[in-house]
Design brief:
heterodimer, A: alpha/beta, Rossmann fold, 4-stranded antiparallel sheet, 11 helices, disordered N terminus, B: mainly alpha, two-stranded antiparallel ribbon, 2 strands, about 5% strand
Chain lengths: ~300, ~325
Amino acid sequence: MSPAEDMNNETPGEDMSIDSKVSSSALADVANARSAAREPGKAPMGSGLEARGIHAWFGKHHALENVSLDFASGTVTALIGPSGCGKSTFIRTLNRMHEFIPSAAMAGEVLLDGKDIYAKGTDVTKIRLQIGMVFQKPNPFPSMTIGENVLSGLKLAQLKVDNKEDLMQECLERAGLWNEVKDRLGAHAGGLSGGQQQRLCIARSLAVKPKVLLMDEPCSALDPGSTLRIEDTIGQLAQSMTIIIVTHNMQQAARVSDYTAFFLSDGGPGNMIEVGPTNEIFSRPRDQRTENYVSGRFG
Amino acid sequence: MTQRPTPPAPREITTKPRLSDRIFRGTVTGFGMASLVILTLIGLFLALRGFQTFKHEGFHFLTGVKWESVTSDAGKVTNNFGVGAMLVGTVLIATVALIVGVPLSVLCALYLTFYAPERIKKIMVSVVDLMAAFPSILYGLWGFFVLMPMVQYWAGLLFKYLRWIPVFNAPQPFFERSPFVAGMVLAIMIIPIVTSVSREIFAQTPLDRIQAAYALGATRWGMIKTVVFPFGSSGVVGGAMLGLGRAFGETVAVFTVLNIVFKVNLHILYGMGGNVASMIILKWGEAVGDETKALLAAGFILFVLTLLVNMAANTIVKRTLKSGK
């Protein structure tokens, strides 16, 4: 991943308190453990995604200003920052979900395998098949059974597969849900717990074989146990696809991501302040504001 | 183990309202109850006046197909009243109206909710609402002069090619003023209510489910099929039943376009039929004595029918809106 063009290169301030040093270095340890755990030598799969100079507006409100980020194949990138800094808006520009909000506008380019997904004549449904999304609140289709939910994307996109049963099992296994639901695939999805529903949503996204998976605070509505299971799942998935995850939880960012990007709004539009390998962001951020945020001084 | 002390009984919380407040409350309550009282009184009035007929005709009043009052030379009056044919006609016409009107309304509601630009949507919503406020005689006249010639042509085609289906058959190719025409006029008249109920329900579709579908690469139609229809189907059924209530009770428009004949006619294309409401208006002018009572009894049947359908419809619509399922 290359640092973005508009990145700030300030050096960290000297006035760090002892406490913050301890907590942020603890996060850095977590991040180091994570990068050590990645199997070296395994060729990354999935697909590269590049965001170039992204701006976003809601009506006249300028929500996001000139964000450029590269997401290399097979990596996990965490987007962190306080509420209202534009991280969710940014992630929604990456698969063209941003445009569903009335009066929403954007500028810039998002390149998937080098092709602009906003180019004229692009079939947006094909884009969203390649760039899947998991939302903050689990949103399975309540009128469908567990099994139908997993395969719903195929039906929606009118894709044909040879063996639906195998695909269903594979997706549920990758999402870490197979053992809990294998005996009740015909039951309605509404009967699952929140964490199970979220993993079902992940399985549903996997069924259409996306190259990139966007996750918008996927664990914020879940209990710690379910959160841990989903983080495990993310670790598994990262071997075969590119993952971008928005999170409010810095521990989570440290646990699951290879790279971390810090977003901040100073009252105006949100900016990306800094991006780098996760252990560096948590141990020696270049920008004072990042330092303040990861050490828990605000946000 | 020590016994816990028994908690005190909860206190009754009261307040003594001022006189002015009590007067105002009384007035408002009175007016608030007025519609209920009036509805009950109308029902009672119809039931009481029609009672004699019910007693005389018994169950035959619902099944009988004759409507005659014969005075013999000796001055003896023989009554034979039955609304059977008219009930069959009512259901037949309303069915045609629903089959034609509901799909139109659902498509219209889908367009307004998911496709129409904001400006067009606003205009269209008020136009559709205006349709509901239109006097029904105008629908009747328009139906008679404009719609009927067209519908007669379609009826001719249906008769020619689909005659092997019993409802599209007819004793003679006489398609003027048929239940089919009346059903078409009613179909247009129920569009506003069915559209506005469907639109309201569709607009309540949970956003997160809509987004889930789009994020899976759904087209708009795919999203509607997977998310909106399962969510809104029972609401649409409720809206259709409200339309049915209107179709059952519609009087003037049907009276204008339908050839009312006291015979059970299941051939929708054939130019005779009836419905209870328009039958009452047809017979009212010349009715005396027992026939008046019989007409009021028929009115009571209509009253109960409409009330039941509307109550069922409202229950369904409210349940859908609340459950958010």
